[in-house]
Amino acid sequence: ALITLRQLLDHAAEYGYGVPAFNINNMEQGLAIMEAAKAVDAPVILQASRGARSYAGDIMLRHMVQALSEMYPNIPVCMHQDHGNNEATCMTAIRHGFTSVMMDGSLEADMKTPSSYEYNVDITARVAEMAHWVGASVEGELGVLGSLETGEAGEEDGSGAVGKLTTDQLLTDPDQAVDFVTRTKCDALAIACGTSHGAYKFTRKPTGDILSMETIRAINEKLPGIHLVMHGSSSVPQELQDLINASGGDMPQTYGVPVEEIERGIKMGVRKVNIDTDCRMAMTGQFRKVAQGDPSQFDPRKFLIPAMKEMEDLCRDRFERFGTAGNA
Ligand code: G3H
Ligand code: 13P
Ligand code: ZN
């Protein structure tokens, strides 16, 4: 059955667990997530970016999610718009059956310029009001995701850099968060704490100076009732970097968000944990391995079956470590 983000995260808060939100673009990713959820009895957040919607098409996505929820009738599914950039993106998502939308007003509508605070409050409040009329949930974002090491934004919504960012912009201000949540009435709040999108988050295993769990603690202290969302939460596992590089890939050494830091975050009110890069690397690692190990192979299923298995194992691990398992 489809449920809203609010329903799912209220339950997660009551029982003290976090929920990974995995990005989907195609059937194989959907099946991998649902198989993992079924194996450990976990509720699911499937999220589609604007890029996913144009890749698969809204009608395909809607029927795919419907099919997945029919195939796995005991797993509650929330269908969420990742990084909605304006009212139109959010409203058309809801029209296509999404039960939750992110209105990301942390960047202006072109998704390239850091937003003014009033712009963000205004657009997020308007989307929240409209979404709530029809029973959908809303995630807002305050602060810009990016690296405290370089001041660069990484790949926010895949649209490229927004120029050098200051520490002020890269860490959500707890007092402003209180004002933002009060004025927008959003159901969940994405915060900036030093994580960024994509594989290249940190040049070393992150410590407190470049991954600010302290920011999360401080926001949670002022806003104990809000569901916090951590974007850019892929851990970029060393094994997957090694698998890709051992089979002809060329990924420079990089570091993601250690899963134990996310586990700490969950204890401090993080309820939704966004993961895309890890799933991409899991599938691509197996594509490369098959391509290299069996160069005469041309049946896509021979690539996709091990790719789905690798992604399923990864999803299952996150369900277990975030405490999502057993809560379907
Ligand atoms: O926000 C970033 C997600 O990883 C989605 O990426 O826009 O390339 O689909 P995408
Ligand atoms: P990663 O790139 O770390 O997987 O982050 C995904 C994300 O935040 C999607 O909104
Ligand atoms: Zn994100």
Describe the protein.
- The chain is α/β, with parallel strands linked by helices and 328 residues long.
- It has one domain (5-321): Aldolase class I (TIM Barrel).
- It has helices spanning 5-15, 27-40, 50-56, 58-71, 87-95, 117-133, 167-170, 174-184, 213-222, 238-246, 259-267, 277-293, 300-321, and strands spanning 19-23, 44-48, 77-84, 100-103, 137-142, 188-191, 227-230, 270-275.
- The protein has an eight-stranded parallel barrel, surrounded by ten helices.
- The radius of gyration is 19 Å and the shape is globular.
- The protein starts with a helix and ends in a 7-residue tail after the last helix.
- The mean pLDDT is 96.
CATH-defined topology: TIM Barrel
Helicity, as a percent range: 40-55%
Query: Over all CA atoms, what is the radius of gyration?
Result: 19 Å
Q: Compute the number of strand runs.
A: 8
Give the cofactors and ligands: glyceraldehyde-3-phosphate, 1,3-dihydroxyacetonephosphate, zinc ion
**Which H/E pattern describes the elements?**
HEHEHHEHEHEHHEHEHHEHH
Beta-strand proportion: 5-15%
Indicate the CATH class. Answer: Alpha Beta
Write out the CATH superfamily name.
Aldolase class I
Count of distinct structural domains: 1
Helical segment count: 13
Distance between the termini: 11 Å
Secondary-structure class: alpha/beta
Strand order of the largest sheet: 1-2-3-4-5-6-7-8
